[in-house]
Amino acid sequence: NISVAVCISQAWPAHMLTATSDHGTVLDTAGFFFTRDGAYCTSEGHNQLTGWLDDIINISRHRLGTAEVEDVVNHHMAVAESAVISYPHEIKGEGKVLAFLPLKRLSRGYCTADTLAAELGELISKKIAKYAAPDYVQVT
Q1: How far is CA 106 from the centre of its chain?
Q2: Could you give the number of structural domains in the chain?
Q3: What is the chain's pLDDT, residue by residue, as a tens digit (140 residues)?
């Protein structure tokens, strides 16, 4: 899959220059509005948004894009989609991962949040690194 930055040719009023406080967002992209989102084309030919390109969290002194964690989480058979954020840690400051996960309809009752957290932790440890595994999973 090839990842690309998402740009649109006609922005609506909420995306205009002063709304973003970044006049270069539109002007530096040849008349296109840079949404700050990334995407890739699936094997079926659909465009899959991956999330903000500049949404970075700091986990155990590692800078990590939330989109890359969400992408791995979304490959779990029970997960419909995900949102990953960091939350405060008493010693490290920012340092823990929290994942919000709506489950697929057929997967409800598939497993407990603890089981799902363990499976996601293993999956993320293999694909990214152990420090990126969610410390807490909130099934929504």
Answers
A1: 23
A2: 2
A3: 566 777 777 766 655 555 555 555 555 556 677 777 788 888 888 888 777 777 788 777 788 888 888 888 888 888 888 888 888 877 666 666 778 888 886 555 666 778 888 899 999 999 999 888 888 888 87
d(CA 87, CA 68): 17
Q: At what angle do helices 66-73 and 113-127 cross, to 10 degrees?
A: 120
Between the CA of residue 125 and those of 63, 66, 120, what are the distances in Å?
16, 15, 8
CATH code for the domain in which residue 66 is found: 3.30.300.30
For residue 34, give both structure tokens: 């840079």
Burial zone of 79 (CB within 10 Å; 0-12 exposed, 13-18 middle, 19+ buried): buried
Contact status, residue 89 vs residue 135, Cβ threshold 8 Å = no
Q: Are residues 13 and 25 in the same domain?
A: yes
What residue spans of 80-130 are helical by DSSP H?
Answer: 113-127
Domain interval for residue 39 = 2-52
